[in-house]
Amino acid sequence: MTDIGLMSYYLGIEVEQEDHGILITREGYAKEVIKKFKMNATNSVNTPIECGIKLSKHEEGEIVDPSLFKSLVGS
User: Fold this and answer.
1) Are 6 and 22 in contact, with CB atoms under 8 Å apart?
2) How far apart are CA 66 and CA 73, in angstroms?
């Protein structure tokens, strides 16, 4: 067995080991998703929609392929 030092990356998860604890993040993966879906020029918001608002279908709206949304939500 060989000691190769502190773990910093494991199965796509970044690991930072400090004296006060261990931080585990997926920041790199999140950045990949943002880049893949061209969301890097968007503005962040705390709540993108009011709570309890009733949504309805826009009958004259553009038909869209749901696979993009499903792919993004599945990420």
Assistant:
1) no
2) 11
Eight-state DSSP code of residue 43: P
For residue 67, being part of any structural domain is answered with no
Q: Tens-digit pLDDT profile for the chain (75 aa)?
A: 898 888 888 888 999 998 999 999 998 888 888 888 888 888 877 877 788 889 888 888 888 888 888 887 776
**Number of structural domains in the chain:** 1
pTM for this entry: 0.53
Look at residue 8 and tell me if it is in a domain: yes
Overall residue count recorded for the chain in this entry: 75
Query: Residue 10 is part of which domain span?
Result: 1-42
CA distance 66 to 18: 43
Token pair 């880049």 is at which residue?
A: 35
